Amino acid sequence: MSNCVFCDILAGRAPSSVVFADEQCHAFMDIQPVNPGHVLVIPNDHAASLAELDVETGAHLFRVAQRLAGALRESGLQCEGIDLFLADGQAAGQEVFHVHLHVIPRFKGDGFGFRFGPAYGVRPSRAELDRIADRVRGAL
Ligand SMILES: [Zn+2]
Q1: How does residue 8 score in pLDDT terms, banded at 50, 70 and 90?
Q2: Is 100 within 8 Å of 61 (Cβ atoms)?
Q3: What is the pLDDT of residue 49?
Q4: How far is the CA of 110 from the centre of ligand 1 (A)?
Q5: Residue 114: per-residue pLDDT
Q6: How far is the CA of 47 from the centre of ligand 1 (A)?
Q7: What gap in Å lies between CA 132 and CA 140, rounded to an integer?
Q8: pLDDT class for 61, splitting at 50, 70, 90?
């Protein structure tokens, strides 16, 4: 076994329920689903974080996730909406350090959702937004 459970799945050393696979990615059922139909899309080449992920592969993960979202809506599973979610870094909630894009079927009353922090709802000034935009632009 490697120290990456997703690499173990890709190598066939750990079980998975695959829904899609190609030369760049695999998609399989999350073993701890938020709702039935919760799929993970992962790159075939190990990348612990977005910073390590080839941008074309990243685009491909989204392409496949978009297709899966359509499939989930057509699947007959309870699915009134879809969340795409990617946690990059421990502080963001990443638990397995092999990039994975969640495709989560959602429906009213499913109980899942984001929790907002105490600063949420305090609108920054335009000057503050512009200052922050400058910082991000400068880092591009
Ligand atoms: Zn891995």
Answers
A1: very high
A2: no
A3: 98
A4: 30
A5: 86
A6: 7
A7: 13
A8: very high
CATH code of residue 44: 3.30.428.10
Choosing from 26, 38, 98, 100, the catalytic residue is 100
Output the CA 140–ligand 1 centroid distance in Å: 27
- How many domains would you assign to the chain? 1
Nearest of 45, 37, 52 to residue 6 by alpha carbon: 45
Range of the domain at 116: 5-139
Cα–Cα nearest to 33, from 95, 116, 112: 112
Q: Is 100 a catalytic residue?
A: yes
Q: How remote is the CA of residue 13 from the centroid of ligand 1, in Å?
A: 12
- Adjacency order of strands within the sheet including 39-43: 18-21, 25-29, 39-43, 101-106, 81-85
- The rounded mean pLDDT for the chain is 96
Is residue 24 pLDDT above 90, yes or no?
Answer: yes
94 pLDDT higher than 80: yes
